[in-house]
Write a structure and sequence with these properties.
252 residues, alpha/beta, two-stranded antiparallel sheet
């Protein structure tokens, strides 16, 4: 490895997924790259870890400026392992993705892609999660490469505020209309469990945007052909409610 920026890459689709291979090739243009990703799909693993299992790792590829490892754990395990065991210095950036499937609105709560970025953020490493709104395992990622590179360059140059990461989503379009910096949309998953036999169910359902007319949200951007960039913070404290509770629960 050289004195170039060090970039750590993970995902939740697995080390062989097309999206992480595209992201790896792009990031090699910006720095030295270490990939530590699950050995298979870990979708919707959120920030889960493996406290009861032994995590194994295997080096798949090593060349100048690039190492690729597969890990038996979750995306969060991968980032923990990289930061605590594999890397000889703190990375300048962690990027996760490119996920096959969007991680907008409430999906950030379930996403292993975002979970990997959150783990980096908790360790004070600038992080970005990239996702594409698609159901396909084979995609044309070329329309989004410019935004990916611009965003990564910006974070490498300017950093991010403490405890903040960027969640970037793309619509599946041949040409982006542009990029919107926007908030998470209010939404919910409906009809999530369907019968799959006697006393058996499987996860299914559909997403409902609860504010489809709001034009300042990530889902509005995706539905109208824009990439969305949403800053997400670790601090989940409801400060206004906290002040009210202080006045009501703790009064005389």
């Amino acid at each position: 490895m050289t004195n170039r920026p060090l970039i750590l890459i993970s995902n939740d689709d697995g080390v062989q997924a097309q999206g992480i291979k595209v992201l790896t090739a792009l990031m090699q243009g910006l720095g030295d790259v270490i990939v530590v990703a699950p050995d298979g799909p870990r979708s919707a693993s959120a920030c889960s870890i493996s406290p009861l299992s032994t995590i194994t790792i295997r080096l798949l590829m090593e060349e100048d400026g690039l190492k690729v490892y597969q890990c038996s754990g979750t995306p969060t395990d991968c980032v923990k392992l990289a930061l605590d065991g594999l890397l000889t210095r703190k990375p300048d950036l962690v990027v996760s993705g490119i996920n096959h499937g969007d991680n907008a609105s409430v999906s950030v709560q379930y996403s292993g892609t975002v979970g990997a970025a959150l783990e980096a953020c908790m360790k004070q490493v600038p992080a970005i999660a990239f996702s594409l709104k698609t159901k396909s395992l084979q995609c044309d990622f070329s329309p989004y490469e410019e935004v990916i590179m611009q965003t990564a360059r910006y974070v490498l140059e300017h950093g991010l505020p403490q405890d903040v990461l960027l969640n970037v989503n793309f619509p599946e379009v041949p040409v982006l209309k542009g990029t919107k910096v926007c908030r998470l949309s209010r939404g919910a998953w409906r009809k999530e469990m369907v019968e799959a036999g006697v006393n058996a169910y499987r996860l299914s359902g559909y997403f409902e945007n609860l504010e489809p007319e709001a034009d300042d949200t990530d889902y509005w951007a995706l539905d109208h052909g824009f990439a969305s960039i949403t800053p997400i913070q670790l601090d989940m404290t409801a400060y206004r409610v906290m002040e009210r509770l202080r006045g009501e629960i703790l009064k005389g």
